Amino acid sequence: xxxxxxxxxxxxxxxxxxxxxxxxxxxxxxxxxxxxxxxxxxxxxxxxxxxxxxxxxxxxxxxxxxxxxxxxxxxxxxxxxxxxxxxxxxxxxxxxxxxxxxxxxxxxxxxxxxxxxxxxxxxxxxxxxxxxxxxxxxxxxxxxxxxxxxxxxxxxxxxxxxxxxxxxxxxxxxxxxxxxxxxxxxxxxxxxxxxxxxxxxxxxxxxxxxxxxxxxxxxxxxxxxxxxxxxxxxxxxxxxxxxxxxxxxxxxxxxxxxxxxxxxxxxxxxxxxxxxxxxxxxxxxxxxxxxxxxxxxxxxxxxxxxxxxxxxxxxxxxxxxxxxxxxxxxxxxxxxxxxxxxxxxxxxxxxxxxxxxxxxxxxxxxxxxxxxxxxxxxxxxxxxxxxxxxxxxxxxxxxxxxxxxxxxxxxxxxxxxxxxxxxxx
Length: 425
Prior knowledge:
CATH architecture of the largest domain: 2-Layer Sandwich
Number of strands: 13
Number of helices: 6
Strand order of the largest sheet: 3-4-6-1-2-5
Shape: rod-shaped
CATH class of the largest domain: Alpha Beta
CATH superfamily of the largest domain: Histidine kinase-like ATPase, C-terminal domain
CATH topology of the largest domain: Heat Shock Protein 90
Order of helices and strands: HEEEEEEHHEHEEHEEHEE
């Protein structure tokens, strides 16, 4: 069933990825088609302009407005010699042979160059390019200078300016990239929202389990504590007339009864609703108590800017830090080094890090680290870290686990600065 649940959770991300990828491919497909159509239209413009100029030359000349985007133009004989040239048209082209293509086109950075065979466009032999009068008796201007008026042109050449073609193509590419980034961002937002939904669903399911567990645990704790109290009383009565051997056995029983009572109290504390009343807690004073309590067994490094005051319940914070430090000491039992407690303030928060050089936590166990009744200790209750996180979060803070560089564990407690609510004295 677990693999089925994992599979169901992957359906939406995979389907969303396929959909977004399809949309991006479709957008790029349409964009590339548009870019190709624009190039084809540009080539068609150049081809039509070349044909029109050829006809104008045959008719006797052309005006400057006829060649606004023409950088150069030329007509050539079958041997490649220039008959008419305008601008920087080449003086010589390759002669026509069996391998010569009807038309050739080269797209450069600023212009499009077109070569075209004219075939039988010019019926009959006649002079071309002679100066003739334009409308109303005006002489045609900017006519190509003829190099020969006796030969018929067999090839035409034009260097056609791209105009705003490059800018439009770049704008199209920019639009495609922007749309792709927007779709990728949309996918990221969808996945983020989906993971939030899954997290909320998991929390809701976990809360339901905890509610059910809490109801059962409260009943069990109530039923257990009464017999434990009776056992402790009876042990005290039996100790009065017991010899040394019996007294030693009764002491073991009392110790186990105390341990069971402590477990029952922890379960009750964990299942009880958290008190959200937040008070100012001086960090330096709280840490001073820990320094005295763990003198010689824990190293403390405090880097606070001043007398920082955090928001929370001091008893809850002390209980949480006590548990974390105790775990660090257990992890380093038998080693020469001691745990390190570092305290710094940053971004309106106080960060308390408890580091050890123990064996650390296996990666596959880290997700369960703060779950109730999960423990890696042979005699652990599995409630210490769960209760510590609950206490820290009840104070508006957070408790996270991390690996210590070089080996070991780091438990980081982050607490917000105390802010007195407006109107509260």
